[in-house]
Write a structure and sequence with these properties.
The chain is of the alpha/beta class and 83 residues long. It contains 3 helices and 3 strands, in the order βααβαβ. The protein has a 3-stranded parallel β-sheet with strand order 1-2-3, covered by helices on one side. The relative contact order is 0.25.
Length: 83
């Protein structure tokens, strides 16, 4: 059996762009949650725009997490209809 943990990136204010430093800052809690759960699952799935809420890009989030967890399987959802 494969266990995949689904995680939502942090929300960002509508219409606001975040710098790389701001993205790192808002991802601190998410990175800790992934570090904790990575010991108990086979991978994580990063969602995008849950219920139309603007969030940090799952591709950006996945790229940052890949650097910390190179062996963890990471998948993302792309909901382009909300863009």
């Amino acid at each position: 059996m494969t266990i995949i943990y689904e995680i939502n990136p942090p929300k960002i204010p509508k219409g606001k762009s975040l710098s790389e430093d701001e993205i790192d800052s808002v991802l601190v809690n998410l990175k800790q949650r992934v570090a904790d759960i990575a010991k108990s699952c086979d991978g994580i799935h990063i969602t995008e725009s849950v219920l139309g809420t603007t969030r940090v890009s799952p591709i950006t989030t996945g790229n940052i997490l890949r650097k910390q967890h190179p062996d963890l399987k990471i998948t993302v959802s792309m909901r382009v209809i909300d863009k």
